[in-house]
Design brief:
The structure is a homodimer of 419-residue chains. The first copy, chain A, is an alpha/beta fold and 419 residues long. Chain A contains 17 helices and 18 strands. Helices cover 44% and strands 16% of the residues of chain A. In chain A, a hairpin with a 2-residue loop joins strand 9 and strand 10. At the A-B interface, helix 1, helix 4, strand 6, helix 5 and strand 10 of A face helix 1, helix 4, strand 6, helix 5 and strand 10 of B. Chains A, B: Component of the DNA topoisomerase VI involved in chromatin organization and progression of endoreduplication cycles. Relaxes both positive and negative superturns and exhibits a strong decatenase activity.
């Protein structure tokens, strides 16, 4: 097997005439560039790391949640119940005080580079015909979460829904109240031990523990390790990587995993296979925080590629109350960028015309604070909207299946060509 | 961490009044039942294993493909090219002889319990206006596969498409010809080193090698190991499991992984997270073949659950030429079966009414040979269509989050309640 791998590396590559292959310097030069980058990134992240909501003087109060231990969640629920009992015994009935998660209560904070929730909330009284159902659902979800705390197990939203279908009626209702409960208890949804389906995989220079088992991601073959659904059982992260490579899609991930790209340029390769799921976002954030590594993103050159980058970077509006725990600041846009299409001479037939919807999404994104604060991104996105052309990462295969791992990425790294 | 786990197991379960919990015998009794089952299954599978297409006297000839080494694929392509060159030099021009993959050329063989391809084929001449494009695409795909053989790498269908967008125009065209080429060369699509995206995960009592790395699936935490996209780099399977538990969906998989069900009842747990993908089907078949273990399926109680079971069991029509390599014979339907709904007293509100489409799909499936040959399945499916009720695996959560792993599955195993 080892021979086999070596054979693949030493065999003369088919296309010596590959565009820009002659610009590549020896790996040692590129490695030095990466080491400098990694060092500067880790020092800057440790100095800027301290900036939190508390450090800012914002004209309004913000609500943020934190990862809480099971014991704290349990005691928060019990305190809440005591307050309710007290209110009932005082003859006042009871209401839940539920933070608003609506768009009007959301705000992008440039200093933190993420969306946060303001502090508006509304009462959900039990003794009111319009809110009695929701109040009852809220009480029931609190009870179920309390059970999870006692048992110390994790369940999915779907499991939660099925414990009381008669009351919840449909899953949208139990899901929505679940987010309400997280806000009410000031904890992340993962602290409630309710997890989403896992989708992501990781491979490369990372060792970590998953529920007590030590996992060495350099020894995970081509398939990689499935990212665990419950981040609270993940720990002991160790790595000699110089950066994290965040990949939008499966196909590019597979190419890099098979070529063991992480052995040539020490890195950790991670993908959520499309839309970022909560587990992958938490895992990425934890890697960045624990290992202090820069994150470089490889996404399609279309508005959705940038959108995916933005979800990792500054959060989705739906879960803005949890943005500080779910987002990974300072992700660099490595490629494939609109300007790469001409620069790397991607043939016309490998580019795709943008649809009306694509162009609209692109224009909308130009108005987003998250994009606007990075002039390089504005320039790239404007170019995309102007040329009305998009391209997938896979378009690079036009120069050969391994062009991505053998020329494009090494050259990008060598030229520090990220934004 | 270890303490934590122990605590969860010894803590008194909340619902001692759980339906049927009192019927459960000690684990040692259930384990003995499983050992007997596993032994009988492995002896019957080794005796019946020899039945192949060649053993049958069918009224027509069938076409089957096999896993070929890269060297064989390469030499098959080279021989084909020589024949073409000869034909051209003889002044005859050239045609590809392409096996038909249409429904009319497919046949369910009850003795083998899978769909096979008959031997109809059609000519694809280069010098004909109606076929010149397809003939050219075929030649190009053959050339690209030949390159993959030389390099010994794997690519996705998407990569393949992008190597010549101008010719292929859209991916449906290169995908279709890729299947043609596999049939022409009498090899599986995975032998061509073109792989699909990975989706499945595996956890439990299995050790195997993935691209040279040894993977111990009991030490993969809760996340499990991502099933490798390329089965040809998977090997050295070892296991002390008594059965393989094939799970339709994520949520049930997660429950069993977190509860480390495989340590209580030695098994391997595998899921494709919904629709079975080629990589998971190949992996399941390899486990069954190499380890000679019985396979028990846990799917939703709806027509799609049974459909998914049928794809693992007898193949999809789309890839019937490859059915002998992709299918896993003799999968038992463990649950959730329509008769379980009443038997386990699943409350009405956790059952869902079947839609018109569901009922139609159910009735159509009653006509399928694959279902008809198993009277127990016909009975179950008829019951489903009659009651017009379906239910997800998750419906069992109505009795508590761990009812699945602590009562339902152990009792099913104890009662050998599979069909």
């Amino acid at each position: 097997m080892a021979d086999n791998r070596k054979r693949r590396r030493t065999e003369p590559s088919v296309g010596e005439e590959l565009p820009f292959k002659n610009k590549l310097k020896p790996d040692s030069v590129i490695l030095q560039i990466l080491k400098d980058f990694s060092a500067s990134s880790s020092s800057s992240s440790s100095s800027s790391k301290t900036l939190t909501l508390q450090d800012l003087t914002l004209p309004f109060t913000c609500r943020e949640v934190a990862d809480l231990s099971l014991a704290s969640v349990r005691s928060n629920i019990e305190s809440l119940n005591l307050r309710i009992a007290h209110s009932i015994l005082s003859g006042l009935g009871f209401s839940f005080d539920v933070p608003s998660r609506s768009a009007a209560n959301q705000h992008y904070v440039a200093e933190l580079d993420r969306i946060v929730l303001k502090d508006k909330s509304s009462l959900r009284p039990f003794a009111n015909i319009s809110t009695v159902r929701k109040a009852t659902i809220t009480a029931r979800i609190l009870e179920l979460i309390h059970q999870l705390c006692l048992k110390g197990i994790h369940v999915t939203k779907r499991d939660l829904f099925y414990t009381d279908v008669k009351l919840f009626q449909d899953q949208l209702q139990s899901d929505a109240v679940l987010d309400d409960v997280a806000c009410m208890l000031s904890c992340t949804r993962s602290s409630l031990n309710v997890v989403a389906a896992e989708k992501g995989v990781v491979v490369g220079r990372l060792v970590f523990s998953d529920d007590g088992d030590m996992i060495d991601c350099t020894k995970m073959g081509m398939g990689g390790k499935a990212i665990p659904p419950n981040i609270d059982r993940v720990g002991d992260m160790q790595s000699d990587a110089l950066f994290i490579l965040l990949v939008e899609k499966d196909a590019a991930y597979m190419r890099l995993a098979e070529d063991r790209f992480y052995n040539r340029f020490p890195c950790i390769i991670v993908t959520a296979k499309g839309q970022p799921d909560v587990a992958t976002r938490l895992f990425l954030r934890k890697m960045k925080t624990d290992l202090k590594l820069p994150v470089l993103a490889l996404v399609d050159s279309d508005p959705y590629g940038l959108k995916i980058l933005s979800v990792y970077g500054c959060g989705s509006k739906n879960m803005s109350y949890d943005s500080s725990n779910l987002t990974t600041p300072d992700i660099k846009w490595l490629g494939v960028r609109p300007s790469d299409l001409d620069k790397y001479k991607i043939p016309e037939q490998c580019r795709l015309p943008m649809t009306e919807q694509d162009i609209k999404t692109g224009k909308d994104m130009l108005e987003e604070d998250f994009v606007k604060k990075n002039p390089g991104w504005v320039e790239e996105l404007s170019l995309m909207v102007k040329t009305k052309q998009k391209a997938e990462i896979q378009a690079l295969s036009t120069f050969g299946f391994q062009y991505l791992s053998e020329v494009y990425l090494p050259l990008k790294l060598q030229q520090k060509d990220w934004l």
